[in-house]
Write a structure and sequence with these properties.
The protein has eight helices and 14 strands. The protein is an alpha/beta fold and 257 residues long. It folds into two domains: 35 residues; 183 residues, 3-Layer(aba) Sandwich (Rossmann fold).
């Protein structure tokens, strides 16, 4: 790329329009390099080692997606967490809402091997998934040892009701593993029901089917739903090794007795 001294010299020799085009070209070259991956990472889900792709927008996350299993940071963080707590899956009854492709087959095989039961669910189900509205879970009380709900609640109209339903179907001593798009610097969750167009939601909530972006008061919502909670926060050295997103939080929620 152009060094500082070279750029300074070119400014005295070339027309401004051409200089601007060169600057844009240089920026584009940097962006292309970053899309292909900047540093080698490891995926604890599929075992891939190498460059990760960039993913997402607002902002783009460099080294964010495993090119082998397509996992992103929160998926790899979740996997590291359950590897430290194998009892949360092995032999357990598990409800996984909107199961990510990087997990679905692996967890189905693991739970079948260990004598557990793996229920994959979604509001709009695909193969091997059952229809479940998170606001009205069609299972009896105290059915599941573990419920997994990652980046789903921001799509749900009545998230308070959904959280109460998750608590209801958990066994005493069970846990829900949950994450949401959250901004710790915000006191309050940002939501506005009057923003009901796809373009409006895309502008305000980063995605056309999002209904809110959470602030740190998400913890209060969990408390009101009857959960005690601990957190798993992405930090070094796992962030650099596995391509996690710094500060991302997984909430480990247990029903308050």
């Amino acid at each position: 790329m152009l060094g500082r001294a070279v750029r300074g010299r070119l400014k005295t020799l070339l027309p401004r329009k051409l200089i601007d085009q060169l600057v844009l070209f240089e920026a584009g070259a940097h962006a292309f390099r970053d899309v292909r991956g900047r540093y080698p990472r490891e995926c604890p889900i599929c075992g891939y080692k190498g460059l990760f792709w960039a993913k997402g927008r607002q902002p783009i996350v460099i080294d964010g997606q495993c090119p082998s299993c397509r996992s992103v940071g929160r998926h790899r963080q979740h996997q590291l967490l359950v590897l430290r707590h194998p009892e949360w899956l092995d032999g357990a009854t598990v409800l996984h809402f909107a199961p990510e492709p990087c997990f679905a087959k692996r967890y189905a095989a693991q739970l079948a091997r260990t004598g557990g039961n793996y229920v994959r669910a979604d509001y709009m189900p695909k193969n091997d998934e059952v229809v479940i509205d998170l606001q009205d879970i069609a299972f009896p009380d105290a059915t599941f040892d573990t419920v997994i709900v990652h980046n789903v609640l921001e799509h749900v109209p009545d998230d308070a009701r959904a959280l109460r339903e998750i608590r209801r179907v958990l066994k005493p001593g069970g846990r829900a593993l949950m994450s949401v798009p959250m901004f710790e610097a915000w006191d309050e969750t940002y939501e506005d029901p009057s923003i009901d167009s796809e373009a409006g939601r895309d502008l305000h909530f980063n995605q056309k089917d999002h209904l809110r972006l959470y602030g740190r008061d998400f913890r209060d919502r969990l408390d009101r739903a009857g959960f005690d909670l601990t957190t798993d926060v992405a930090k070094e050295p796992e962030v650099s090794r596995y391509g996690l997103e710094r500060g991302e939080t997984i909430f480990i929620c247990t029903p308050r007795q």
